[in-house]
Design goal:
Layout: E1 3-6, H1 17-24, E2 29-31, E3 38-42, H2 46-56, E4 65-67, H3 83-91, E5 97-102, H4 109-112, E6 117-121, H5 126-135, E7 139-140, H6 155-162, E8 168-171, E9 182-185, E10 192-195, H7 201-208, E11 239-244, H8 248-258, E12 264-268, E13 278-281, H9 286-302, E14 307-312, H10 319-330, E15 335-337
Bound molecules: threonylcarbamoyladenylate (TXA) and magnesium ion.
């Protein structure tokens, strides 16, 4: 049985003692972060980490991110912390950024899928920090969804996917960013973004100098640097089509008119209605849309949508780059350009 614990304020922190103890002793605990909910296990316990892969149905060759509560915990996990890593940890952490460094032997191979590098992140969410601090161990955690499905941004998404597969689900409300962290590889020159996320390429480059931006296709090949990026991801059950650019309205209306016999759900970028379709307003800014996207995909599925059509009128850059990356994967590249 999974036990659900609701934490709304620091006065509720005492409730984290039982899940923290469960984590330290090898059980699985799902918890909120500012990006998405994580499925945590003691990162130093190979057996516990293995059970993450089973619970999620995750391919074994996809390494996990190790979460810590304080910067001081990183020094035992990695061979060295170069100046760029220090700068990122001092300036952008805690926050939605994950750094990749050479791993130390304390990290079991199952965490890194046999690789010599490890991904480390300090989440900003205060519940995540408190849980990890109370557990007293680094916590390996992928997103707390069944592999392939949209990532969880609310505790109810975790319940949908992992009920009974984890000891505790900590409900900390909706995630504030809604898309996963930026993954940056600091073992290469120049450092390279392997997954766009909550911290933008622009912010990282301003801080540490030249950074190789994420190139779609890069890590979608058969030998990707960030193996997770090659799998089908973030996908709703419904078919999905994305309308990129400003002139989406006519194109969406035509698509709805051409498919009268099916349930259509439109994800809108602001308040709008379409005759013959349900709509879910994801928000008029890239930040709002990012926060709401995964929940909207699950909602559309639960409402029985056959087709999801998504408005995507934002210029790229900043978080919009990450939003594009996720939504393109959700729809399997089914994108229409609407100039
Ligand atoms: O925001 C996040 O990062 C969330 C929350 C829970 O912290 N976690 C998350 O984990 O998104 P996951 O497992 O869903 O995605 C981790 C990504 C994958 O694409 C994986 O391949 C990559 O990071 N990764 C992990 N370790 C790596 C390594 N050593 N080298 C390259 N890529 C790595
Ligand atoms: Mg994931």
């Amino acid at each position: 049985m999974s036990k659900v614990i609701t934490v709304k304020k620091p006065q509720d922190f005492y409730q984290l003692d039982a899940p923290a103890e469960a984590l330290a002793s090898g059980e699985l605990v799902a918890f909120p972060t500012e990006t998405v909910y994580g499925l945590g296990a003691n990162a130093l316990d190979a057996f516990a980490v293995k059970s993450i892969f089973t619970a999620k149905g995750r391919p074994q060759d996809n390494p996990l991110i190790v979460h810590i509560a304080h910067k001081s915990q990183i020094y035992e996990l990695v061979k060295s912390v170069p100046p760029a890593a220090e700068k990122i940890l001092d300036t952008l952490a805690p926050g939605p950024v994950t750094i990749i460094l050479e791993k130390n032997d304390v990290i079991p191979d199952v965490v890194t899928a046999g690789g010599k590098t490890v991904a480390v992140r300090i989440p900003e969410n205060y519940i995540a920090q408190e849980l990890i601090a109370r557990a007293g161990v680094p916590v390996a955690a992928p997103s707390a969804n069944t592999s392939g499905k949209p990532s969880p941004t609310k505790a109810e998404h975790v319940k949908e996917d992992l009920w009974d597969k984890v000891s505790y689900i900590i409900d900390g409300g909706s995630c504030s960013v809604g898309l996963e962290s930026t993954v940056i590889d600091l073992t290469v020159t120049p450092p390279a973004i392997l997954r766009p996320g909550g911290i933008s390429h622009e912010e990282l480059a301003a801080l540490i100098g030249e950074v190789r931006g994420y190139k779609s296709g890069d890590s979608d090949t058969t030998a990707p640097k960030s193996p997770g990026m090659k799998y089908r991801h973030y996908a709703p059950k419904a078919k999905m089509k994305v309308f990129k650019g400003q002139a989406f309205e006519e194109a969406i209306k035509e698509t709805i008119a051409a498919t009268p016999q099916v349930n259509v759900c439109v994800l809108t970028a602001g308040e709008r209605t379409y005759q013959g379709a349900k709509t879910i307003n994801c928000g008029a800014t890239p930040e709002e849309y990012s926060k709401n996207l995964f929940d909207a995909l699950r909602t559309a599925d639960n409402q029985g949508a056959d087709i999801i059509l998504a408005e995507l009128p934002f210029p790229s850059g900043g978080i919009a780059t990450a939003l594009y990356n996720r939504i393109y994967k959700s729809c399997g590249g089914n994108v229409v350009l609407c100039k």
